[in-house]
Amino acid sequence: AKDLHHSCQWGYGIRWGDGSTDTGMQRLALSEEDKSVRNWFIQTMKDLKCQITVDEMGNIFAVRPGKRTDVPATFIGSHLDTQPTGGRYDGILGVLSGVEALKRMDEMGLETEGGVGVVNWTNEEGARFPVSMISSGIWAECIPLSKAHGLKEVPTVASLPTAASAPETMKSALQKIDYLGSVPCSYKSTPMAAHFELHIEQGPHLVSAGQRVGVVTAVQAYRWYRLNVIGRDTHTGTTAFEHRADALYAFSRMMVRAREVAKSRGCLASVGIVEAKPGSVNTVPGTVSFSLDIRGPETELVAEVEKELRKDFDGIAAEEGAGIGKPCRVEWTLDFDSPAVKFHEDCIGCVQDSAYAVVADAPVADTKSLVRPIMSGAGHDSVFTSKRVPTSMIFVPCRDGLSHHPEEFCSADDCATGASVILQAVVRYDRK
Amino acid sequence: AKDLHHSCQWGYGIRWGDGSTDTGMQRLALSEEDKSVRNWFIQTMKDLKCQITVDEMGNIFAVRPGKRTDVPATFIGSHLDTQPTGGRYDGILGVLSGVEALKRMDEMGLETEGGVGVVNWTNEEGARFPVSMISSGIWAECIPLSKAHGLKEVPTVASLPTAASAPETMKSALQKIDYLGSVPCSYKSTPMAAHFELHIEQGPHLVSAGQRVGVVTAVQAYRWYRLNVIGRDTHTGTTAFEHRADALYAFSRMMVRAREVAKSRGCLASVGIVEAKPGSVNTVPGTVSFSLDIRGPETELVAEVEKELRKDFDGIAAEEGAGIGKPCRVEWTLDFDSPAVKFHEDCIGCVQDSAYAVVADAPVADTKSLVRPIMSGAGHDSVFTSKRVPTSMIFVPCRDGLSHHPEEFCSADDCATGASVILQAVVRYDRK
Ligand SMILES: NC(=O)NCCC(=O)O
Ligand SMILES: NC(=O)NCCC(=O)O
């Protein structure tokens, strides 16, 4: 936990309390702050005598060798980048629990069969470059390298001091901070025996049930889109409603409709980015671009919400501007598609056994009730590693279930519990 | 008309046709392009032997002396700034008709009793600095100078190449282009006998009725607000709808509601600028800022729409986040208030007589039917001059009633008709 807050000195964000660590984080992927924490991470792992590999997506792999050199290492992984108004735990806890695990293993003089590694994945958040988990996606060969290298940063964060005036691509940003490695980004070049990830839940289930550990068995499906609504710029003071093709009004109706449709199917739909052009008080916006994030427990449900919204958005667009025979149009681009995932039985088993062991001393009658199988609402790099190697995750509670917010918080106790569980899970897996 | 398109070489915008003049305009107030056209305007007026005055808002007054020096000049005025996606006629036609009028008077060797002036008002559009007609407002002593000098450019146009990275104030922008004059901006320092303004209608009435001239008798009321909706940033993938205080969702409902309420009272309500923060695909926006422009034929109607929307927006905000006991809040700031205006009988009379005279040769039975009394939906600098001196306006038709759009268009014939009417109106007024 000391290390965790130490690592947060690079890129701390909005202050919410008086304590020295009561701030959020603003460490966008491949920013100067991200560079600093990467440098710190590599130095720390070198001090722990790890072998370091940086691949062509800037993923950093640090391996503590085991007895055998003919098998790949078992990894603990997550990410050190954050949302623009993020917290100190999302991703960071996962990487730091890996650092902590290796320190403990050294203290205990523990030798493992295979090696044990820690990986920091690049741009997991998808906040600066709008595809989440993109670098584990390339490692898993589920996303082509060219797509990632050419991906541009989003305009909203491009105005942050971390970004250049012309939008950077991932490749130019990697070069800028000297993290464009030469090793191919692939599970073939940097193999793993398994991938474990510790994360705050980012939702309210554990905390509201008073439970201490979530054994993550699955991750819900999600898709990210970029939409453009194209209408017609015109004067706000002289143009009757019937004569407008107001792209922002159409957007507003779409956003209201998206919640309705998603709700009716037990899904979520959210807009995080919106840009209206030309952006003048007295000009009706003729162009609106926005992001749409649809999620649901099953891949098919997300597809159904999309289908229904495509129809409804077309209908809304057609109505706006019909009076002048120039209705709005709407264009969809699918940026990212992450089907629902089930984690590996073996890894889930290791996590569950470890969780039971760690909470066994708790002062309650049925300690196992403190552990709960859970589905993840958020995406994680484990989604992509699971396509290639046995994978699972551990959740610990966070205050109010709040995440992607500066006040995101996980108690030192809960961090420690999670770190113990992941250490045990890795050791158990290594012994199998 | 040649001069008009000549003056459009500084800051032409989006191309919509093949002709050499088939482009829109992007000449934001106090930009480099605005500086160039101002320099051209001053040189042109000096060549016409006018006396030039630049005041502390950068308003440029050019006066052709009359026989008497003890009375103020009668002015033709409008503005050379445009919307970010504006056209070649809004404002520009008005100033250029003044240049044309003075040229004609010289050609005809016409001597007037008082002088005749042409004025270019600064930032009429309110596109870069979000208070329209601000400089005529200061001249009329209806707006304090300090408010204008401290006014910041809007963030949406601040990203245009014309603007600096940190938002400029009007004062810093005036200094930057060397147009911060020393003469006080006041009707006392730069008096006028009367103010006439030629403008495209910017609406569909003249063009759809096949009429040629609008005699503007009044201007509708409008108010501009800046609103903030404050909710809570949170994760899009893990936060149930009931647990959200989604400021952008609340905004969307507000925009839909604004149209409903405005419509029910024969008013308009429009949002031209919206900004959602932090602006990341997978973070529910906790803060949204937007502009609201409410207009109506009577000042009271605009006030009623505002009152109803204040209630409704509070209700919408209260619902969003109620599930977590942290509802959204909404804050209103009134940036600009322009009550309904009636122009001066004498000026209206001069315009009407001139309009009848100019269309008298038209090949229709009842030529007077080509002239129509009309209320302006848009604001104009004449709104503020009318508070201090007799004022009225002339409208000419524009294609499809379209304005604040690159394809804004007024035929050379209609421009010429308008220019003839304003020249006659000024001469008639001078002779009174
Ligand atoms: N854990 C997390 O916040 N990841 C970002 C990807 C997502 O949007 O779910
Ligand atoms: N004429 C014109 O477009 N003026 C701008 C002020 C307004 O929004 O009405």
Alpha-carbon Rg of chain A, integer: 23 Å
User: Which chains have the largest interface?
Assistant: A-B, 75 and 75 residues
Shape of chain A: globular
Which ligands appear in the coordinates?
N-(aminocarbonyl)-beta-alanine
- Bin the helical content of chain A: 25-40%
Count of DSSP strands of chain A? 18
Discrete helix count of chain A = 13
Which descriptors would you attach to this protein?
binds N-(aminocarbonyl)-beta-alanine; 432 residues; Peptidase_M20_dimer (chains A, B); 18 strands; nine-stranded mixed sheet; alpha+beta; homodimer; Peptidase M20 dimerisation domain-containing protein (chains A, B); hydrolase activity, acting on carbon-nitrogen (but not peptide) bonds, in linear amidines (chains A, B); 13 helices
Question: What does this protein structure show overall?
Answer:
2 copies of one chain form a homodimer. Chain A is α+β, with helices and mostly antiparallel strands and 432 residues long. The first copy, chain A, has helices at residues 2-7, 32-47, 92-108, 134-139, 145-150, 155-158, 170-176, 205-209, 247-264, 299-319, 345-358, 381-385, 412-431; strands at 12-15, 23-25, 51-54, 60-64, 74-78, 116-120, 194-200, 213-219, 221-230, 234-235, 268-270, 274-277, 283-284, 287-296, 329-338, 341-342, 371-376, 391-396. Chain A is 34% helix and 22% strand. In chain A, strands 3, 4, 5, 6, 7, 8, 16, 17 and 18 form a 9-stranded mixed β-sheet that branches. In chain A, strands 9, 11, 12, 14 and 15 form a 5-stranded antiparallel β-sheet that branches. The longest helix of chain A has 21 residues, at 299-319. At the A-B interface, helix 6, strand 10, helix 9, strand 12 and strand 13 of A face helix 6, strand 10, helix 9, strand 12 and strand 13 of B. The complex binds N-(aminocarbonyl)-beta-alanine (URP) (2 copies). One N-(aminocarbonyl)-beta-alanine sits between chains B (90, 124-126, 132, 202, 378-380) and A (235, 237, 282).
